[in-house]
Specification:
alpha+beta; two-stranded antiparallel ribbon; 6 helices; rod-shaped
């Protein structure tokens, strides 16, 4: 009974069925960690893979006076820039804009591989996120997610090792020889050495040549590390409940399950699945929905088609 002008109180009815919860931390974290992997791969594409830098500094204050940077980029390009170079003819005058030889081929292949890894990572993230919000198409979805993540880690690791194996290469070695004043050819991937005097460099400066991996190399290294950790965690938890039926079986034994509405008890009490309350028992065989006649697994608590509760008794 309500007074005039008063709004009637709405009665909320709980939707029949169970609210099952099984949280696997590695699968939840994968939705975040795979985004990190994708971001690292995105920024690595076309970026700096290896570079050499000549710095001229004031011997009294160690303040930088001038520098030259040669950058080998993924995709086969070479950049060269100078800062406060005294001569009109800079060391960049003879630097090619493209890579040649084995290193050029590696740069092209590596760049294409990173694009492929980026697409694969986004797909794996989609599978992980769909699973986390309850959209699961069977265990093959989880298996595909794990396999893709492990492949991304494996290929990224291969690119890192391949970069070390290929090394700077003859073209970069020639540039290093010129920049260092005929001191070194940068035979190793990382290194540094005091450099001699070259045309146009500041007089009385102390010159230092250093070389090593560029930002894209470290971004790929980060993607490899995160993907490896994600793949390992997903692999270790692969046998835990994933499909809706597996989660229902888990919930009957261990998990928190919302109470089911009942109409056969005094005052409309509720009974928990798996409890000893009257009117409920686990089916021993598959069952047919009395509402839509769909066939359901013996473990299903709700009809897979219309979400009708499994008959009791």
């Amino acid at each position: 009974m309500t007074t005039a002008g008063a709004r009637p109180r709405r009665r909320w009815r709980e939707r029949p069925g169970t609210q099952l919860h099984h949280v696997e931390p590695s699968r939840t974290i994968a939705s975040v960690s795979l985004l990190i992997v994708a971001a690292l791969l995105f920024f690595a594409v076309g970026g700096s893979w290896w570079q050499a830098e000549l710095v001229g500094a004031n011997p009294s204050t160690d303040a930088q006076v001038q520098n030259v940077v040669i950058t080998y980029r993924l995709g086969g390009f070479v950049d060269c820039s100078t800062w406060k170079w005294e001569s009109a003819i800079t060391p960049c005058a003879n630097v090619s804009s493209s890579q040649g030889g084995v290193e050029g081929g590696f740069a092209m292949v590596a760049n294409g591989a990173l694009v492929g890894l980026l697409a694969a990572t986004v797909f794996a993230w989609s599978l992980a996120t769909l699973g986390n919000v309850g959209i699961r198409f069977g265990r093959r979805q989880l298996h595909a997610e794990i396999a893709i993540v492990l492949v991304v880690a494996l290929v990224a690791g291969g690119l890192l090792i391949g970069g070390l194996a290929a090394g700077p290469g003859p073209q970069a070695s020639g540039y290093c020889w010129i920049l260092s004043g005929n001191v070194t050819g940068c035979s190793f991937f990382w290194g540094g050495t005091p450099a001699g005097q070259i045309t146009g460099s500041c007089e009385n400066c102390t010159s230092q040549l250093s070389w090593g991996a560029g930002l894209s190399y470290y971004e790929t290294l980060g993607a490899f590390a995160v993907a490896t950790g994600t793949g390992a965690a997903l692999w270790l938890g692969r046998k835990r409940p994933y499909t809706h039926e597996e989660v229902e079986v888990w919930a009957q034994r261990f998990g928190p399950v919302a109470f089911l509405p009942r109409t056969d008890g005094p005052g409309g009490e509720t009974a928990r699945p798996g409890s000893s309350g009257p009117g409920y028992r686990v089916a021993e065989t598959p069952w047919t929905c009395p509402n839509c006649h769909a066939a359901n697994s013996q473990y299903a608590l709700l009809c897979r088609e219309c979400r009708t509760e499994r008959p009791r008794g």
